[in-house]
TrEMBL record:
Stretches that traverse the bilayer: 6-24, 83-112
InterPro entries: Spore_V_AE (IPR014204), SpoVA (IPR005562)
Source species, domain of life: Bacteria
Keywords: Membrane, Transmembrane, Transmembrane helix
Species: Salipaludibacillus neizhouensis
One matching Pfam family: SpoVAC_SpoVAEB
Protein name: Stage V sporulation protein AE
UniProt key word Transmembrane helix: yes
């Protein structure tokens, strides 16, 4: 059942993104931003964690999870460190993922010699 929940929730997030592209005529950048902001808003309202508990990877793999991570880290650190925690929490939670994306992209570019 866990796999079915992950498939359905992840698929619905992707369907929303595809509808924003096709029906809403949004650019890929606008669609990406809309999904990140929606994940951030859902976390701010306390609705994204129950979605993760229900769907697992179906909610943590799509880009909405990045917005969730940003807000979740900021709120956690704000409670511990005050206003400065809002900034440090964002970097603390997301730095590993962003750093690994940069490093692996660089290595892939060295290995596969991308064109222009």
């Amino acid at each position: 059942m866990i796999f079915l929940n992950a498939f359905i929730v992840g698929g619905l997030i992707c369907v929303i993104g595809q509808l924003l592209l096709d029906v809403g005529k949004l650019t890929p950048g606008h669609t990406l931003s809309a999904l990140v902001v929606s994940g951030a808003i859902l976390d701010g309202l306390g609705l994204y964690e129950p979605l993760i508990d229900f769907a697992g990877a179906g909610a943590t793999v799509p880009i909405t999870s990045f917005g969730n991570s940003l807000v979740h880290g900021a709120l956690q650190e704000a409670e511990a460190s005050g206003m400065i925690g809002i900034i440090t929490g964002i970097f603390q939670v997301t730095s590993a993922g962003i750093s690994s994306a940069i490093i692996f992209s660089f290595l892939a570019a060295l290995i596969f010699k991308p064109k222009g």
